[in-house]
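User: Teach me something about this protein's shape.
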Amino acid sequence: MQLYIGNKNYSSWSLRPWLLMRQADIAFDEVKLRLSFTDDSLFKRALAAVVPTGKVPVLVDEGFAVWDTLAIAEYLAEKFPGKALWPAPVRERARARCLCAEMHAGFSALRSHFPMNIEASLPEVGAQKLREVPEVERDVARIVDMWSGQLDASGGPFLFGAFGIADAYFAPVCTRFRTYGLLLPEAPAAYSRRVLELPAMRQWDRDACAEKDFLPFDEPYRQAPQ
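Assistant: First, the predicted structure itself:
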């Protein structure tokens, strides 16, 4: 299989299936493309050969393309049932899908004001946005409540006991909380640290920091280095 992804420093959607597959020891070849929104870019041309959306991530399995992170997660769960990517109990599996779907479709203020930026450290921006943008504060509070309730229900260490799709889905949020210096209650903070300390997540971090590829359209708070 091949997984098409964008810049590791910025592409939160790419992180989800990459982390899931690496952490679950599912073999794939990484195809990394430099993010671009222009129609004639290498990014758009390369993706046009495999997927109609022109977006990453894309999983290609023997020529069959699967796009959208939820679709990729479901495909992997069915292709590798022994990996237990979803919880086994029916209600826990349904709840895990609920959390992923909520993340997939919501939290627009968090995404907009706290874009993923692995190698940056912007705690002053985090504090400012929490003070000035009520929608960001509400998004953060909802995630804290979501994580706290699910960790209480499962007993941890991850949202449904063992690492799975739901944890991969929230991994970009963990990086955002780190980048923007958000202070969390004890249990959510410990959970976020556990996700960031996963071997596959540490590898993604190293790769992201090694890119040294400043993309202005993904940098609302910093200027290009001189």
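Now, about its shape. The longest helix spans residues 134-154. Residues 2-83 form a domain with the Glutaredoxin fold (CATH 3.40.30.10). If you'd like, I can walk through any region in more detail.
User: That's plenty for now, thanks!
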